[in-house]
């Protein structure tokens, strides 16, 4: 019997005398159905009473395989021998986190804060793991080692390590693996598979097992262990995978008995130990048996961790029996607790940060953790939503039909399937979950999207480690971004000197020493922006409304900084924005650039600048270290490699779209910074939803946490220090008529066309366009059309029809398809319009249109009735939608609905 509910009451545990002697018990009251059901009692016995130390009302509790009994008319539950108790099952704890938690809860916390630096053991460990996977897939040892060491060129170079000796070391480790594999164990019956991604709905766990043999976990460790038994925390890790594998093997009775009862640890360094010098058990493989009691112990550790995360408490180290004197993180631990004034078993050193900085740290720490919870909720949707609901939510491509597969030279697999033409959030280059239709219970693999179906070729191609029947692709919720944000917060607050932080914490204003030079001679505001940026001793802010030459100004700034021998980091939230900035740098004649990013992330014409991370270590590292301009997304700025780099100035584009910690990722790498952006356009994307969907405990200030992330650092600084900002007030994009509304509503009437040509442009200026052939209402630069349709779900068929007719009218008049763009609020509506249109016309949501422009833009509002679509959530979306057109803008929507809101009423009046 299983029960799950919200905890209402947690009394003290008590001791009772039973026929077996004295026992401890804890009677917890829970309400099933997420708190809506009748209160009932769950009695936890013996070791499970430990739960009382961290369980709090409001948390969720799930109890599997409990005994059910009737007591005075009430159904009660008690734990039995095989019962598993889970606290906060929706919080998906990572297996490696449980491993460090068991070593020391504070180690877990510190790992979260400062991420992993490039270090020899880490790089070696990664390579050996990759080679292990290769060997399991049947690769040749020498070839696999050579290839994997080559691929780690950059990391090795940054360490100053030599490829030859790394190859030798890895070969020793790999021979241990191969030797073990060859001991007659690699038979078909072994049923091996490498790297398996496992997610548990039942236990709130996730992780990637190094390998699975006959359904049991095999973990690889690159250290040595000359004892007969595996290390305790290594067993814990393998035990976690046993729990996960048990759930996968289970056909639905929810019992822990399906978990494998053995695990194997492979200590590959044992093979390199000289047996003349060391005694003990030098065999690399150590098997151990996994009892139900051990799995229950693991789950209690997991529960403790999840509970601490739910309350937002910081671990002290006292939660487990950590021994600080042997810990290699002791110094870091004491320094962090000293600076943040945290309780720590190891003690504190140093002076605490000023109170406001500590408060800031805590506020954003919590906000980032709330983002992590939002990622966990995305995972939960993998099992809570049906395939069609996932597809409707744009989070999955379903009903794919497998068309073929082949093994690639490196042992990985290429899988192909025919798509249905549906659209989703999935893009080429993304890492997704490929499955046979059931990403949790069925066969699933992490896959990389190589090609997505298009109008003329609907074949989808992905690559994976192991083959799977390709019937469904799901967006893979990744915690990487939350991890990177925490690291940025740590790096900026704990590693930067007080002077650097002073203006950020409003202890003093930023200072400037503006050069008395002219940098741009035809645009006063741009010139002022370059002077301010070049003369900034702390930071400068360039506020650029649509089309005002933000990117051009950014490039001028970088050029002048380079002239002053400054090393510059160029960054932005998206790869697209980074590549746009690079294009502008090229126009300024700057080519000494290193673009840091993945092959699929970087635009085709910028590949030449891309840093090849594989190759001779010194060459790879030298290329990065010698570059005077390094360009990367803000997420990559927190990567291991870029964390080793220091810059004079960080220049960040589209800074209005970055959360505060997201901006810190780039600026923490530099002495000074320049933010370029527009806080009247799209705000940062925050995943955490409004308070009602947040965890019971986090919800009290959930809305505030979301608001903290939604205000960009750019916006906060420009409001605090208006004089550090320069408004670019002349725009080079829109005709006078088109820009009027945005200027009045969003820029205080300050926006002006840069030249008379810009102001007076019209469709007649385009070659081959016969304006006379357009109907009268489309001859004006701005028009409004009410098609009189009705919204059905997330689309409006009549409106879609009107939009396609409009596009045809422009095409018939001679407008090039590439010059036309259609903006719609919902992906379903976008898909509906795309189906009807010829290729070449861009149809997309507002968010994807930010930063681009077209000669003709049609905006379709879809809504009839209440104004509750995403486009109406924030006026800034409308600002973006209305400022993409250069020569003609057509608004299509229901005038009555739009007029419910004053601002949209003014918009309709302006357009009509
Ligand atoms: N000082 C200038 N003199 C001449 N042309 C300019 C100047 N500044 C910008 N431009 C031109 O104006 C156009 C818009 O510039 P840019 O792409 O830099 O704008 P943006 O503000 O980055 O646009 P968005 O709002 O889309 O981000 C470009 O074609 C650019 O070459």
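^ structure tokens above, recovered residues below v
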């Amino acid at each position: 019997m299983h029960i799950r509910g919200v905890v209402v009451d947690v009394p003290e545990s008590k001791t009772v005398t039973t026929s077996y002697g004295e026992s401890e018990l804890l009677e917890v009251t829970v309400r099933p159905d997420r708190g809506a059901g009748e209160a009932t009692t769950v009695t936890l016995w013996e070791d499970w009473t430990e739960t009382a130390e961290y369980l709090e009302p409001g948390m969720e509790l799930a109890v599997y395989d409990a005994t059910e009994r009737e007591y005075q008319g009430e159904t009660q539950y008690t734990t039995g021998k095989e019962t598993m108790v889970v606290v906060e099952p929706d919080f998906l704890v990572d297996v490696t986190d449980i491993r460090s938690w068991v070593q020391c809860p504070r180690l877990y916390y510190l790992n979260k804060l400062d991420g992993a630096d490039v270090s020899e053991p880490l790089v070696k460990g990664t390579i050996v793991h990759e080679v292990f996977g290769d060997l399991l897939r049947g690769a040749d040892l020498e070839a696999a080692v050579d290839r994997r060491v080559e691929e780690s060129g950059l990391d090795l170079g940054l360490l100053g390590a030599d490829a030859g000796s790394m190859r030798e070391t890895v070969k020793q480790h790999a021979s241990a693996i191969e030797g073990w594999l060859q001991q007659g164990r690699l038979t078909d019956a072994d049923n091996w598979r490498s790297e398996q991604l496992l997610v548990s709905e039942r236990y709130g766990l996730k992780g990637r097992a190094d390998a699975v043999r006959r359904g049991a976990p095999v973990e690889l460790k690159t250290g040595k262990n000359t004892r007969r038994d595996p290390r305790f925390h290594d067993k814990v890790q393998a035990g976690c995978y046993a729990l996960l594998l048990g759930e996968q093997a289970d056909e639905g009775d929810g019992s822990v008995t399906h978990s494998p009862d053995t695990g194997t640890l492979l200590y590959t360094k044992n093979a390199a130990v000289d047996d003349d010098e060391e005694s003990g058990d030098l065999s690399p493989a150590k098997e151990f048996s996994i009892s139900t009691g051990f799995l229950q112990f693991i789950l209690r550790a997991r529960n403790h961790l999840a509970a601490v995360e739910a309350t937002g408490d910081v671990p002290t180290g006292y939660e487990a029996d950590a021994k600080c004197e042997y810990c290699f993180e002791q110094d870091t631990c004491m320094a962090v607790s000293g600076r943040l004034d945290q309780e720590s078993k190891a003690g504190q050193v140093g002076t605490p940060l000023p109170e406001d900085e500590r408060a800031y740290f805590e506020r954003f720490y919590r906000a980032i953790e709330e983002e992590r919870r939002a990622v966990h909720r995305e995972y939960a949707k993998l099992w809570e939503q049906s395939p069609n609901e996932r597809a409707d939510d744009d989070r999955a491509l379903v009903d794919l039909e497998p068309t073929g597969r082949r093994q690639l030279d490196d042992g990985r697999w290429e899988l192909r399937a025919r798509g249905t033409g549906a659209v989703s959030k999935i893009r080429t280059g993304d890492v997704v979950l490929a499955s046979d239709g059931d990403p949790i219970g069925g066969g699933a693999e992490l896959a990389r999207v190589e090609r997505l179906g298009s109008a003329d070729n609907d074949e989808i191609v992905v690559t994976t480690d192991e083959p799977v029947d390709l019937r469904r692709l799901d967006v893979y919720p990744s915690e990487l971004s939350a991890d990177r944000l925490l690291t940025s917060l740590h790096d900026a607050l704990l590693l930067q000197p007080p002077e650097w932080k002073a203006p950020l914490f409003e202890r003093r204003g930023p200072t400037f020493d503006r050069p008395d030079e002219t940098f741009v001679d035809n645009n006063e505001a741009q010139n002022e922006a370059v002077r301010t940026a070049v003369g900034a001793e702390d930071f400068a802010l360039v506020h650029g409304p649509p089309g005002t030459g933000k990117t051009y100004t950014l490039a001028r700034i970088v050029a002048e900084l380079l002239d002053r021998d400054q090393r510059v980091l160029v960054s932005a939230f998206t790869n697209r924005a980074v590549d746009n900035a690079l294009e502008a740098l090229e126009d300024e004649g700057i080519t000494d650039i290193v673009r840091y990013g993945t092959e699929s992330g970087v635009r085709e014409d910028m590949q030449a600048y891309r840093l090849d991370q594989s190759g001779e270590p010194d060459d790879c590292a030298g290329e990065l270290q010698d570059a005077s301009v390094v360009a990367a997304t803000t997420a990559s700025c927190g990567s291991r490699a870029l964390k080793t780099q220091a810059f004079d100035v960080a220049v960040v584009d589209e800074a209005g779209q970055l959360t505060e910690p997201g901006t810190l990722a780039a600026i923490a790498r530099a002495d000074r910074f320049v933010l370029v952006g527009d806080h009247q356009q799209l705000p940062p994307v925050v995943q955490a939803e409004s308070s009602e969907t947040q965890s019971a405990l986090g919800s009290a200030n959930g809305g505030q946490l979301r608001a903290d992330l939604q205000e960009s650092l750019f916006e906060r600084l420009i409001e605090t220090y208006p004089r550090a900002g320069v408004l670019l007030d002349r725009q080079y994009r829109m005709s006078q008529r088109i820009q009027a509304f945005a200027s009045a509503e969003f820029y205080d009437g300050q926006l002006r066309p840069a030249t008379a040509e810009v102001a007076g442009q019209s469709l007649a200026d385009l070659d081959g366009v016969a304006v006379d052939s357009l109907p009268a209402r489309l001859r004006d630069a701005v028009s409004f059309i009410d098609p009189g349709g009705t919204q059905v779900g997330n689309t409006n068929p009549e409106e879609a029809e009107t939009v396609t007719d409009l596009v045809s009218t422009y095409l018939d008049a001679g407008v090039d398809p590439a010059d036309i763009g259609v903006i719609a609020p919902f992906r379903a509506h976008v898909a509906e319009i795309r189906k009807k249109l010829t290729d070449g016309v861009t149809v997309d949501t507002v968010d994807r249109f930010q930063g681009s422009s077209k000669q003709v833009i049609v905006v379709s509002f879809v809504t009839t009735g209440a104004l509750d679509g995403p486009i109406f959530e924030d006026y800034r979306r409308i600002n973006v939608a209305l400022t993409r057109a250069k020569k003609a803008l057509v608004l299509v929507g229901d005038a009555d609905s739009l007029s419910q809101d004053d601002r949209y009423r003014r918009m309709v009046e302006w357009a009509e």
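Residues 690-700 have pLDDT under 50 and may be disordered.
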